[in-house]
Amino acid sequence: MLAAASLLTARVILTAEGVHQRTGFPWATRTDGFRFDEVRDVRLSERRVRLTRSNAIERVWSLGRADRSRRELVVGGLWRRAEVHVLEHVARHGVVVLPQEAAPGGR
Question: How many other CB atoms are found less than 10 A from the CB of residue 11?
Fold first, then answer.
């Protein structure tokens, strides 16, 4: 029953101002994302998850910020399933989508 409560709050939200993902339980939500006016470009990459025995790969959005710094946003499965739509939305709002970086180990 608790898993169902988590599904009710998990969503990727595309607005005219930015992109955000909201996950978690109703009493403990987590929000992550970015505003278009703070980001000039996005570069996608993948990397192996540290501190696990599995060969799990996490998806990373490297955000080039207006002040020339970069911020990493590790996106989950929900965001990843909607990634094509998110990338289209981001590009329509003036954020440059850079080519994907090669994964470690030639993947």
Answer: 13
